[in-house]
Amino acid sequence: MAFRSTMCCRLILGRHAGLEAPTVRIVQLSSRGKVWRVPRFYSGATQEENKVELLSLGDSNTSPYTHVAENTSKEQELAIPRSRRRILKDVLPFSAFLTDSFGRRHNYLRISLTEKCNLRCQYCMPEEGVKLTPRAQLLSTEEVLTLARLFVQEGVDKIRLTGGEPLIRPDVLHIIGEMRKLEGLKTIAVTTNGMNLARLLPGLKEAGVDLLNISLDSLVPAKFEFIVRRKGFHKVMEGIEKAIEMGYNPVKVNCVVMRGLNEDELLDFVALTEKKPLEVRFIEYMPFDGNKWNFKKMVSYQEMLDRIRQQWPDLESVPGGYADTAKTFKVPGFQGHIGFITSMSDNFCSSCNRLRITADGSLKVCLFGNSEVSLRDCLRSGASDEELLEIIGAAVGRKKKQHAGMFSISQMKNRPMILIGG
Ligand SMILES: C[S@@+](CC[C@H](N)C(=O)[O-])C[C@H]1O[C@@H](n2cnc3c(N)ncnc32)[C@H](O)[C@@H]1O
Ligand code: SF4
Questions:
Q1: What is the DSSP secondary-structure string of 304-366?
Q2: Which among 71, 148, 180, 292 has most CB atoms closer than 10 A?
Q3: Ligand 2 centroid – CA 121 distance (Å)
């Protein structure tokens, strides 16, 4: 039988950053509409992962990448011919569709639930607002959940809901509750501006939100209002307090630092972590369409760190996980932490494990890349899971090694942040 390699077919050879394995490859072949996946060696696989692969390959109706490890019995394992067991000892442990050509495994999905927002932050959107996508072209509840299920089946174990402001979407609690039922999804996180948080917190907790990031760029009410172009400082502070009361620990606070606006508040934000279980994350100001970014307004990680060290010279670095975007520190004796998101001065592309779906259903494999593929259109044209996965796999396969650097990004056409979902 003659096989044709599909769009999704990838042969990946060579060493990749962060992976000990010398080779990674999954070859997908198709013939007359039937898809054949031929996994090859991948020495990073654990025995447990290999077993999953082994059993699922025995069943042509099962995706080779779904989580069936829990159901694996010794008898089932022994029912597989010895030769096959040997081959499968080294098979790929993570979905090929979500693994890019540099070996990065994308197990973290950010879904934007809406393009709308009740604030107008200067760094996120142009003053005149953005042109909103007609409602019918945004993902419906069912479409959001279908995509979430598909990605989780393939190995995504963390989903962050963002926007626009995700907590203004009327079905947000329903969406979270349904996502909570997805087997394999370990973490549901929400990034919010905090305006509706205090009111919604009990429902969010009950629905199953594990992590909260709350944006707050100033501790001075008038300055807060200047930055976000709306009132609401006290509501956000109330949301932060209530999240702490309800046991979220840490409560992450996102602060975009901009020269001449709030960089003079760095030390006040650090001081907040003395008595509260907060992780204040200072984010380098990033360029997006319409936000008037310029290099001089950006305060780099190193500059922030130097300033904070002048006040707290014994600031300690806290080791993080491999794919963590934040560089985390702690003032000895303080309850909370601080972190720096250094997307501009020290990118974390080599360990990037994130994919994004915009509110209108486009998959973005890089925050700073303008290539997109519409999963909404695929869903609406009746694509099967297999077909969707091929399209997702092809997009992930095209992901670049790293973004083009801050100056190129600032010249590049991209959506405003509010239409991407941070
Ligand atoms: C786009 S917002 C969406 C969620 C929610 N509305 C909020 O503000 O938290 C997600 C995050 O992106 C951050 N963000 C937006 N524009 C940014 C920019 N130009 N540079 C750095 N961070 C930015 C915001 O501070 C926020 O923490
Ligand atoms: S950062 Fe969040 S709160 Fe501010 S305008 Fe963007 S989406 Fe709205």
A1: HHHHHHHH-TT-EEE---TT--EEEEE-TT-SSEEEEE-TTTS--GGG--EEEE-TT-EEES-
A2: 148
A3: 5
